[in-house]
């Protein structure tokens, strides 16, 4: 429990205290009628503010027993927060000058994967489980972004393949699918909700690669092909870290203290390929878009919103901005870089998206970033660039280079990431905490005194990020060196101003 909870003179949120919460902020259906028919791997803030909220709305609008068993993949923190609350939590929505709260009650239990991996497989194998959703971040799939294959040298994957109760996401899924095959538990739909290109296809491939390396893998692979579906999805909602101020706001609105409150913007979108193996919630009654092909939606979102988010985060960190909205409120030239990135680099790489005005979407992205009620930290967005940038920026760069164009704004985002990795200092000299799988190997090979050309050469050599075409593109290499030299000499904002003006 946080230190704040001890100073809040109200009851803690739970089923016993739910009657004290204003009725319009509570679930509109009988919580006792829920069963855990969905298992969610990676029950962090995003899932609770997104898939769980959509599922609650679906049950409220169309009925059903669609409870969720959440699984923590790293620590017991979420389990320990929510268990005393009977798995209730609230979503606090900050919409500029107004905040609203809603208690979500579809979570029926939380399992801690590291503590009891066998229980996770058992829950996946139960007959009543019909849907699995995942938000484990790109890194959680333990794959090589350049090849799309499992990193079999990963010690955790290797341990799962050697037969221990599985602790990795792919190991858990394969263990659960194999148990369903052996017990006749029935078909299963697996919904990857992370920002991977064609995420359902990618996850299916990783699961099949793992399954084929287990004893009896061929038979399991045939069963998976016949009984499991892996629809592609696109998810979108900004979910910053919860602060003590957020907990105070939620307590005031709920008349109850919520240790597990999550924070979100008003906007929320979920697009799912309509390819299910068995029953599912009536998500379309909650605003979910069920489509034949998710790819246009996913590419537009990842390249426009996520690409701009990462570019802002790296440049913003270097320029000394702690929060996303501060960059736009300050009138920083970084905004001009984002406009050029979306309008000149990304837009030519996109196909038309049914029902979406791509020009208007760009303006909406900037409005969402500018929401001053969301304290979304640049450092939070800048984590794990090694896994995020291939989809967010490098795909755009590859497509533009193939068309003979020079993607200056997208390349600046990559150069800013390189500077964070190599120099680890903001423009004013303050140290930066760099949370990235490449942080250690880069630190071992170079410092802030390493010439820009050498920094670019070394980082381009990491095959898990840059494929052969990009690594060997001399024009791109020269552009990155130019950007990195300017970032070091002139700082992020002066360099951004030059790129925003077309230089």
| Uncertain spans | none
The assembly state of the depicted protein chains is single chain
* Anisotropy-based shape: globular
Distance between the termini: 51 Å
Instruction: Tell me the structural class.
Output: alpha/beta
Q: Got a strand count? A: 14
CATH topology of the largest domain: Rossmann fold
CATH superfamily of the largest domain: NAD(P)-binding Rossmann-like Domain
Describe the biggest sheet? 6 strands, parallel
Adjacency order of strands in the biggest sheet = 5-2-1-6-9-10
Beta content? 5-15%
Helix share bin: 40-55%
CATH class call of the largest domain: Alpha Beta
Number of domains: 2
**Rounded Rg:** 23 Å
Q: What's the helix count?
A: 21
- Give the mean pLDDT: 95
CATH architectural name of the largest domain = 3-Layer(aba) Sandwich
Q: How would you sum up this structure, described in words?
A:
It is a single chain. The chain is of the alpha/beta class and 503 residues long. The chain has 2 domains: 3-291, Rossmann fold (3-Layer(aba) Sandwich); 295-500, N-(1-d-carboxylethyl)-l-norvaline Dehydrogenase, domain 2. It has helices at residues 45-49, 51-62, 77-82, 117-125, 155-161, 169-183, 199-212, 217-227, 244-254, 295-319, 324-329, 334-346, 358-369, 378-381, 385-402, 408-423, 439-445, 452-460, 468-471, 474-490, 492-500; strands at residues 35-41, 66-72, 89-95, 98-104, 107-112, 131-134, 143-144, 149-150, 188-192, 228-229, 233-236, 262-264, 269-273, 289-291. A 6-stranded parallel β-sheet has the order 5-2-1-6-9-10, sandwiched between helices. The chain is globular. The model has no long low-confidence stretch (mean pLDDT 95).
